[in-house]
Amino acid sequence: MVDCVSSCYLAIDVGGAKLAAAIVADTGEVLVRDRVSTPAREVWPALSRLVLRVMAAAPSTPVSAGVGCGGPMNPVGRTVSPLHVPSWKDFPLAGEVEALTQLPTVIDNNAKAVALGEAWCGAAVGVRDFVVVVLGAGVGGGIVSGGKLLEGRLGNAGHIGHMVVEPDGRRCPCGGAGCLEAYCSGQAIEEETGRPPQRAPQAIVERTGLLVGRALASVGAICDLKLAVVGGSVALGFGEPFFAAAQSELDQRARLGFLTGFKVVPAGLGQLAPLVGAAALARRAAPRLAEPAG
Questions:
Q1: pLDDT one-digit tens code per residue, 58-99
Q2: CATH 3.30.420.40: which residues of the chain?
Q3: Whole-number Å distance between alpha carbons of 112 and 70
Q4: Cys staple from 82: which of 32, 70, 72, 170, with CB 3.0 to 4.6 Å?
Q5: pTM score
Q6: Distance from C-alpha of 133 to C-alpha of 159, rounded to nearest angstrom
């Protein structure tokens, strides 16, 4: 078994399609990991069993836990209400993880976590201004500007999945219409085609890339960006045709001079990005979590 050479972290990723947990070293190396499908009900019991299993296999005791989860969320109450886990409404996820593991715990949107992970040891190392887009069961995003992760008023900045890309378009789980997520999430693609995203026809693959490129052109103009890192099972599964379509649309629409050279690249951490990102949350918060209460 690999030893933790320094600190290690418990990383948890809560998605609409899967639950995952891992022990991640301070180098970003995933030492132990496991996953299960997200059940329709009893999500917390399934997640707690998974977490305990991973902790039992840990080479040493983690110093803290980081949890990436779909939003929206309330960082003050440390609760989550993920659109793709409808049984959780204001669920006290951070407190439940702390009670289960006895580890100080930080939670955040899973796409924001991926942004931190990609900046730590992925495709955005050394980049101070970039956006991450995660296409999985839903569509999430995280924006780093001037080297800092944008948080927003309630910690929900970066929800690129709810940018409108088709005016008067189809309904979205958020209650709006025409959102990127209503077309490009795994769930939306499966509902439209009657087959899982990995078997989507070429036209859907290219349309997904086009719509992501369209959204990125707007985000880039607003935030003055030159790099988009795209991950998640849908985008990475679609591969080069998706990325080519996204880059082509972005090049056509991002016409301001400061956007010249705006590139779309796959997540450097691949399918491990959500777990390394969750560890990055814990790593970033470790000094604060170590402070005594009061």
A1: 999 999 999 999 888 887 778 999 988 989 999 999 999 999
A2: 8-108, 123-268
A3: 10
A4: 70
A5: 0.92
A6: 9
